[in-house]
Specification:
151 residues, Rossmann fold
Length: 151
């Protein structure tokens, strides 16, 4: 059975590759999407990869994931630290939910250290750069009972 996984990306991630490359690297979100979708096929996962700058849209997508009984990988970006509506929507998810950050939020200044989303996440991956998405997808496959290939 193919499991459905939403890979949701929050505010300003559409600017990856341009925005603060010293923090976020030069890989674009489109490049990350290509890599994630290719790995999802190998892992026999159905992937919905999306990005929004709108808090309301993120809430709608999380509710949609809940209604579709999907697992979620979320890089909530700025929604991590102050968005109670996104946090409440994340709590709806009954399948595994992995929170992902490109940077190590624990090494950053106080504004970026305390994610609300972490309180509801199955697991948190941070500080691995764009490769964190692939690690998160591998971890999700394992959480869903699939045996991923690490080759």
């Amino acid at each position: 059975m193919t499991e459905l996984v939403y890979v949701l990306n929050g505010s300003n991630l559409n600017m990856l590759g341009k925005r603060e490359p010293h923090l976020y690297g030069t890989t674009t979100l489109a490049q990350i999407q290509q890599q994630v979708e290719a790995l999802a096929v190998r892992l026999e996962l159905q992937c919905e990869f999306r990005q929004t700058n709108s808090e309301a849209t993120m809430v709608d997508w999380l509710q949609e994931a809940f209604e579709r009984d999907a697992a979620v990988i979320i890089n909530p970006a700025g929604f991590s630290f102050a968005s109670v509506p996104v946090f409440d929507a994340v709590k709806l998810i009954e399948r595994p939910l992995i929170e992902l950050h490109i940077t190590n939020i624990h090494k950053r200044d106080e504004t970026y250290r305390h994610s609300l989303i972490s309180r509801a996440a199955t697991g948190v991956i941070c500080g691995l750069g764009a490769n964190g998405y692939l690690v998160a997808l591998q971890a999700m496959a394992m959480a869903l009972g699939k045996s991923p290939s690490f080759a």
